[in-house]
Automatic annotation (TrEMBL):
Cell membrane listed as a keyword: no
Any one GO MF annotation of this record: methyltransferase activity
A family per Pfam: Methyltransf_11
Keywords from the UniProt entry: Methyltransferase, Transferase
Keyword hit for Transferase: yes
Name the record gives this protein: Methyltransferase domain-containing protein
Methyltransferase type domain: residues covered: 55-149
GO biological-process terms attached to the record: methylation
């Protein structure tokens, strides 16, 4: 039990997989109800037929795959062996396959998928090059006419204005100014609990990969996808008792027939 600082999102996932917390693997913290709202939207947009092969890339806690139980094949791709092991044993009575892979390198044959989901994943990518490689790899995996839901992608750096680095004192001062005294006190309490050895206090990476909408459409068009729909998604969040609203963007693409 300690204060733990993460520089990489993959290390955060490794931590939660070891602590067997499927809700934390969604990255939505205290707002687990947001996961079912997100899953309903994804299912509504993808219109999944019973004979579909569905691949969820970066499937987090596996909640979306669990929610669509009447399909031919459900496959979750996760970058860490720890996550694959944890979800395979957590869902051992479900017919869901979990495989280790990355959005730019998926261990499945070309032209397999009827539906692909990649939700809240591309913000973890290191750079534009990986995003381009992801668009190309998803196109390889897709059958012609396959629908792809790319969700919760930021259009801006969500950490702008947070100049507290990894200093807990600077973080608390920033919290008082921008979130209020109640929020700062609740974080201070959690930090104290970690220092006394009762729980862990996690310091998350302070960067996210972001792309403006026109560039997302361009990159995916170049990889063989047509944009069918896109919209802002409002993500209300509760963190240490404080309500915040974050806007990210969703896209629905269709794989072109070559
Ligand atoms: C914020 S969670 C979102 C989980 C889930 N898609 C959802 O919407 O609830 C990010 C997920 O992406 C995975 N991930 C991170 N980098 C990845 C990459 N390069 N390729 C595939 N998955 C990745 C993480 O392991 C985690 O499962």
């Amino acid at each position: 039990m300690a204060i733990i600082k993460f520089d990489q999102y993959l290390d955060v996932s490794k931590y939660w997989a070891r602590h067997v917390d499927v809700n934390a693997l969604t990255g939505r913290g205290e707002e687990s109800s947001l996961t079912s709202v997100a899953n309903q939207l994804i299912a509504e947009k993808l219109k999944i037929a019973a004979d579909s092969v569905v691949v969820d890339v970066g499937c987090g806690g596996g909640h979306f795959l669990l929610s669509i139980n009447n399909v031919a094949r459900r496959i979750g791709i996760l970058p860490l062996q720890e996550e694959v092991q944890m979800l395979s044993s957590f869902y051992e009575n479900e017919k869901i396959e979990f495989l280790k892979g990355y959005s730019h390198s998926i261990p499945l044959p070309s032209g397999l998928a009827d539906r692909i989901v990649i939700n809240g994943v591309c913000l973890c990518l290191p750079d534009r090059e990986s995003f381009v490689a992801t668009a190309t790899e998803l196109a390889r995996l897709a059958k012609p006419g396959c629908k792809l839901f790319l969700g919760e992608h930021p259009e801006s750096d969500e950490f702008t204005g947070r100049q507290y680095d990894d200093s807990l004192v600077h973080f608390l001062l920033w919290s008082v100014k921008s979130r209020g005294i109640g929020y700062a006190l609740r974080h201070a309490y959690r930090m104290l609990q970690a220092l006394l050895g009762f729980s862990d206090y996690l310091i998350y990476p302070k960067r996210n990969y972001f792309t403006v909408r026109s560039e997302v459409a361009e990159i995916f068009a170049a990889a063989g996808w047509s944009l069918l729909w896109d919209a802002d998604r409002c993500l209300p969040r509760t963190e240490a008792g404080s309500k915040q609203v974050m806007i990210r963007h969703d896209y629905l693409f269709e794989r072109n027939t070559d």
